[in-house]
Hints:
Shape: elongated
Number of strands: 20
Number of helices: 12
Largest sheet: 6 strands, mixed
Strand order of the largest sheet: 6-7-8-3-9-10
Bound molecules: adenosine-5'-diphosphate, magnesium ion
CATH class of the largest domain: Alpha Beta
Amino acid sequence: MARLVLDHVSKSYGAGGGNRIRALAGVSLELASGELLAVVGPSGGGKTTLLRLIAGLEEPDGGDIFIGDRRMNGVPPKEREVAMVFQSPALYPEMTVFENLALGLRIRRAPAAETRQRVLETAGWLGLTDCLSRRPASLSGGQQQRVALGRALARRPRLILLDEPLSQLDVPAREQLRGDLVRLQRQLGATMLYVTHDQAEALAVGQRIAVLEAGTVQQLGPPETIYQHPANLFVARFIGSPRMNLFPGRFRRSSNGVRFETTSGQPEPALAGLPLGKTHLANLEGWMDRELILGLRPEHVKERDRQALEAGGTKVEARSSNVELKPEVKGRVVRLDRTGPDCFGWLESRGLVIVARLPGDCAWREGEDRTVELELEKACWFDPATGKAIA
Length: 391
Ligand code: ADP
Ligand code: MG
């Protein structure tokens, strides 16, 4: 397995003149040998184009592609030793599963005994041993995609490119194959580029994630960094479900310290006077009285801890020891999504809607008034002019 380097790779489509579509605009990426990089982004972002350029199905307009140490620009697909798996498994219907798995090896004129041994081994990895003599039409969608994946693995390519490989499968088949795929990737030390439009899938599979939008890498990093420290508003909105709460507003200094006021256009800002912990202020000092955007994940908006509040002593203690109580927002419950382990609740408060993550067994009902507390120390802050994260 080989490493992959993309250096300022660009690609446009269409006839001359001003109507060209810029599918990729200077993409630079580096995959270590044996790494699984998930590329995620909305439809039309350039994900498939990226894979087609690496596989050699198209040539870039600019930039360089290296696999191992070899520059691949202009090298025919066959010589690149790259396998690609598509959304719908492109299998030969008249061939058996065995023949489909063996195809890549036969084209490369591998000896029959070696081909047989590799096909059997690959079928074993993917749970296809009992289907080797069947034809693709008699298999489930999940099994067909296993054959397509097996055909890629049996060849032992230097690089495996997967273009939304699970998106046509039902949920159980998808989860099972996803688990098997990651296990095999680790076991074989395969270098893999895994494309998906599904942010949850990218977070689940990627050792690192590249967020691709409008032909540009918006952020590249491990899943926890992408999720907790989105580099810009696009990533903040695209990664995470339900979406991160985003409120424009500004810091104001008052007699009781610094507060955040939303500029929601309402007569009275809904989050007016959220007190900010001192820890924040060090890197946000320059943002006083300037417009910025507060970003808060639903899990950092919680049901108010009523026990702590009702135990009067705690409250007094908190006050006397000068511990800041968490800022609160009171509002009307306008939507509840129960997922089982969690319940997501949307509160409307003076024209502003905020989503909270609550326990699955929470007793909220739509139409009630409820209070949530905000963990502002976990907030992300963005510059509205550039969309970029601050600090
Ligand atoms: P994704 O896979 O992320 O959905 P694509 O790489 O397929 O994105 O497409 C990126 C952009 O390039 C889109 O605007 C798409 O319409 C355009 N595009 C892709 N392939 C072609 C092509 N063969 N001819 C013209 N435009 C194309
Ligand atoms: Mg695509």
